[in-house]
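**User:**
Make up any protein.

**Assistant:**
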Amino acid sequence: MSGAQRLFGDDQRRARLAVRHRLAAGRAAATCEEVVDALAVLHATDPATVFLTVGARLADPAAVTARMEAALYGPASTLTRMLAMRRTMFVVPREAAPDVFAAAGQQIAARERKKLLQYLAEGGGWDEKWLAAAEAEVEAALAELGDSSGAELSRHVARLREKVTVARGKPYETTQNVASRIIRTMAAEGRIERRRPAGSWMSGQFRWARAEPLPARPVPQARAAVVRAWLAAYGPGTAADLKWWTGWGLGEVGKALDAVGAETVRLEESGEGFVLPGDSDGATAEDAPAAVLLPGLDPTPMGWQRREWFLPEEHRAALFDGTGNVGPTVWWGGEVIGGWGQRADCTVVWRRLADRGADADRAVDAAAAELTARLAGVQVTPRFRTPLERELAS
């Protein structure tokens, strides 16, 4: 990690963010894949976020739902969902999936399997041999049936209909079906994958399909690839930002930064930061600002641990829930200037938190009207609701 210790001011970081994350005028993407590449990954805990994140950055957002569904579920799909960094669900490019899995997903999958075996043993007395038989039956059912919902699989695999007792002997003792836990663990391991949901584009009830085994990657190589993608999209950032985003330890982050030859720079408020080799040279383009409405859990505001340089601390309480999930935000010139929500009649409304002038206000009004028209009467309620979004929706 070497470099000339160039200073990156907050203004310059905001300009880079707006350009690289497709939030500046004239920088909108032509395809869904371009958006994902620009952001490295999409947050997918809330299924609606995936479509709203991409639609906000496309030059032509018409038919974004159909285009994203083709990219995710079509015969030549280019994107896939997977559990990865911080045990969070992401959409990643299929070509990046082996690195993301080796860098983060496989460790999480191992922990999920350990917890599942404990859950089965304590709740039903079943062991690893029983679980292996259940998983083999799931794979055989998918080979026979094709894409199937959890309910359809349960009808064909008797072991999925078994129940376990949770909190045995306690006042809140209950029974649970084992199906969802087994299926989720198989998905975390990359043995099966989520396909088109049973409901609308906002549904989290996915069908399941057999997955092609991912090519193996050495963990150090995979972590370097993930850090390289993060620096390309989010650099400059700090080691603490990367630690938070990846869920790794600082030692693991440091090794990955060394592996990519990251250059050290100075940041205005947070000290030492890092960029890709050669990425500290030259002026940052300062494109004309554009008004953009990003959904809750959008990758941009979730990309760093420290956000004061684009989102003042005094606005955090209004825009985040109690566990650190960001709600819908309004952007102008690479910074958050407000939040938005939907009224009961599905109209998109917003509130200004930072005054950037009449031009900005008019542009946000137009963006809100455009999003209202594009949603066409569909009510999108964020999975993690925040104070300002709740207030605007009431």
The two ends are 50 Å apart (CA to CA). The mean pLDDT is 95. The first helix runs from residue 10 to 20.
